[in-house]
Structure formats: structure tokens, C-alpha cells
Amino acid sequence: MTRTLILGGARSGKSSYAERLAIESGKEVVYIATASASDSEMAERIRHHRASRPVEWITVEEPLALGNQLLRWSAPERLILVDCLTLWLGNLLFSSGEEYPEVGTITLPPLFHEQQDMLASALTRCSSDVILVSNEVGMGIMPMGAISRCFMDEQGRLNQAMAALCDRAVLVAAGLPLVLKGAPC
Amino acid sequence: MTRTLILGGARSGKSSYAERLAIESGKEVVYIATASASDSEMAERIRHHRASRPVEWITVEEPLALGNQLLRWSAPERLILVDCLTLWLGNLLFSSGEEYPEVGTITLPPLFHEQQDMLASALTRCSSDVILVSNEVGMGIMPMGAISRCFMDEQGRLNQAMAALCDRAVLVAAGLPLVLKGAPC
Amino acid sequence: MTRTLILGGARSGKSSYAERLAIESGKEVVYIATASASDSEMAERIRHHRASRPVEWITVEEPLALGNQLLRWSAPERLILVDCLTLWLGNLLFSSGEEYPEVGTITLPPLFHEQQDMLASALTRCSSDVILVSNEVGMGIMPMGAISRCFMDEQGRLNQAMAALCDRAVLVAAGLPLVLKGAPC
Questions:
Q1: Which residues does B contribute to its contact with C (CB < 8 Å)?
Q2: Would you state the pLDDT for residue B101?
Q3: What is the CATH number of the domain that holds C172?
Q4: What is the mean pLDDT of residues A131-145?
Q5: Which Gene3D superfamilies does the entry mention (chains A, B, C) (predicted)?
Q6: What is the mean pLDDT of residues C80-101?
Q7: C50-55 contacts, C-beta under 8 A, 24 or more apart
Q8: How confident is the model at residue A28 (pLDDT cuts 50, 70, 90)?
Q9: CB-CB: which of A141, A154, A178 is closest to C148?
Q10: How many domains does chain A fold into?
Q11: C66 is in which domain, residue-wise?
């Protein structure tokens, strides 16, 4: 099985690119959506994305237990597409209604690292092809708020960890891939 | 004719890179500046850029009707350099003195999508070589304000649309190109 | 001697990548840290980084006079690793306790350009291999404050200048390099 990380900025076309890869695989596709429709803007984004996906795909909504879902749907004939790790990381960060201070040290909930460890472990044990979609968020000016800086750091760490576990990685800009690792896809 | 998209961050050297391509083409160059000198900082940036360009270039200032200008100057022996789509998108967004809310849904002026459609159409019909310069703005932390998020989304969509219509696309960092599409240039 | 620029976003893995290159060189390594432990968050980052470096490296802390240090440690059998130019640029910007206005024109201290000129000059005269680590900060939404915009511009200009003087340059994302210039490393 092949593990692929699709990195890209906001509105970079990374989701469309990942979906094209999934279609071209010819495998049965399980699409794991990490978004939760917490407000109208997000609900609209979810609708917009869903309308563009093939109807035969199995869609699973999972805001938190991503590792469990990878193991649950694991099968050699399948491809599991996770879109995206950035919303998932945000879900973990705010999972138990935490409020974070504007300045100073951020204390992360235990779930935060537990679920990331479970994803890493599941990724190495899953017998399906896996495509992970994630945002590049570290190439702008450092944000002022403590929680934004924490998020930027944690997203960067997660992207590095996932890239190390994947066979292929690309950075998407304007819908087009730059190969970071593995064969062009 | 060849259509080229030059993407890059702020102060990435994307304009200088595009100007070098234009000079090396050996063609008559029409330079379309989308900047309007709305404040002293912008006026200074415009002066700084202009001083670096060859005197024989035809310079056209066009904040809004970019598609029209592409057709007006269309000629096989010419190269049209547009710098840049990001200022143009900002001009369209604030074209009729709109004020946008800090939160909630943004309603874009009709001009906003009309002019983008006209650019796409003109780009496919223009008989000149065209170089489009545009900013990559989606690789930082998601900004808080509704209009900044809207701008980030729309810039990303525009970059994807232009990249799809272009024969070549590069992402410039520190003055150096990464090839996204087509032959190295 | 070889000069290498390692560009990358925050938490992109650029420091680890640079450190791996330094180890693989087999040379005596002088590590120049530009960070100053001005607050507890930064002190923690410094501790975290230091723990990951080989004990036999010579560590030099230099917040401002980077060019001088390159010449001081210059020797053909050495590799000098500078981490990072972004903290250094921030140090120069705030070197004499300046307070900058929220809007309007920023007047930079004389030291700001003097030290950058000295770095460029020293880089061309240094007989050691040199690796420079620097942040890509221009690929997000333009920040609102005048000093943040100034920093973004100046970082972009510095990255362009350093890339022009280096034999090799890479952009790191998720710990993986995209080659901007020179041979893959």
C-alpha cells in the first residue's frame, strides 16, 4: 500500500488534487471528512466540497478518532482519503471546550497528543492506500496570539511526522504539485 | 503564443523574475500595471518598481478592466506582462467603495466575477505572449477577519484558474523558480 | 567552499535539515545561534534546539554582528551553520530599543543595513562552508501593522540577496527539500 501526503495552502487546490489521485487509483474509496459544520461558513464549505465528489464513495465524518477510522476501514482493495489534518488538529485543540490565554504558555489537552500518536500508529498498520490532505500554514508572518503560534507549531510538527511516514509527499500551489518525496503522482 | 503564470510570496522576487523573462523574449513589451497610487506607501512601491524597468516598454495603468487591455494590446509580436493579479483582485474587491463586515458572509460586487470571467476569456483569445504575476497568499495562518479570509479564498481560486489556462507556471522563492507546469523558463 | 541557503516556514524542519547537512559534511562545525532568550517561550525553543545538536559542535551566540563572526571563525576545514537569519533580522530591527508606529513610514536604524552589508561581504570572503537558515514569511495574507509589513519586505529582500550569493538553495516543507538552486543536497 502507498501512503501519500498532499500539502498545500488554503484554496491551493489540494483537495481536488487528492480526489483526482483517489479516482485514478481505481480502488474503492473511503472518504474521511474531519470537518464539523460548526458554523454557516463551514457548512457551506462542506456542501461545496461534497458536491464535487463521486457518489459511490463511502463518506465517514470523524472529527477526532482518525486513527480508529483508519483501522476500521483498513482493507487492501481500498483507498482511504483523509481531508483534512488541519481541521482535525483544530478539533483536537478545542475538543473539550478549552479556552486558551492570549499570551503565555498553552497547555494542550491529553487527547491532543494521544490522537496524534494513534494516527501515526494506525497509518503504519493500515493495509489500505492512504491519502492525507493537510495545510501548509508556516510560510506567512508569525501570528501574534499564543494559540495561533501554538497551532502553527503543532501543524508544522504534524506535517513533518506524517511526511516521514509517507512514501510520497507533494506541495500543491495553484492546483499543481511540487514533488517533495517519492515518485511524481 | 505562450502564457506564463509567475506565482510568489511578497518580496519573493517574482516581479524581477517576470521582467527578466519579458526582456529575454526579445518581443515588444506592454507592461500593464494594476497598482493605483492610493497612498504614499503604494506610490513609493510603484516608483521603486518603475525605475527598474526598460524605458522602451509601453506602460499601461489599468486597475480594473484587465481583460479589455489584453485584447486591446493583443498582437503576435508582443509580450504583455501583467503585474500583478493580487492588486487587481483587491481593486475589484473595493471597486465601488464597499465596506465589508468584520464577521459573517461577504457579498461581492457583480464586477468582481465579471472582470475575472473577462480576463479568462481574453487570455484564451489574446494573440500575444502573456506573463501574469500573482501572489501566493494561502500558506500562512488563516487570518481572523472575514474579508481577509474571503480575499485569501478568492486569490487561491484565481491562481488555480489562471494556472489551468497557462502553458507554464512557476512558484518563485528568494528570486528563484520552482517549476509547477511546463518547461523550465 | 560551498554556501547553502535553507529556506522554510515556521516548524518546517529547516533547522533539522540544515543540521543533518552539517553532520554529513564531516567538517568541524561552528554553530552560530542568533536567538537571544528574551522571554520564556524563546528560552524554551533554544533549549529544545540545543538538545538536538552534537556535543562536539562549537556554539557561538551572536544576536547582531553576524558578518564579524563569519570572518572570525573562517577556516577551510570548517562549516559554519547560522540559525537563523530571521531572528537576526528581528534583532537588528529592535536593536536599540526602537518603538515603531502602527501606521506610516518605518525608519530603520543605521545598524540594520550596515550589518546586512557586512554579512554579504563576509559571506563572499569566508573560507569555510556556510549554511544559512532563514524563514519564508511572504506566502500568507499581508499583515496589517506597518512593522510587520516592513519585516516581511526586508526578510524577502534579505532572502533574495542571500540566495544570489549562495551556490545552493532549498525550500523546506514538512522536513523535505525542494531545490531552488544548485545540486540536490
A1: 8-13, 40-41, 136-141, 143, 148, 151-152, 173-178
A2: 85
A3: 3.40.50.300
A4: 95
A5: P-loop containing nucleotide triphosphate hydrolases
A6: 92
A7: C52/C16, C52/C19, C53/C19, C54/C23, C54/C29
A8: very high
A9: A141
A10: 1
A11: 3-181
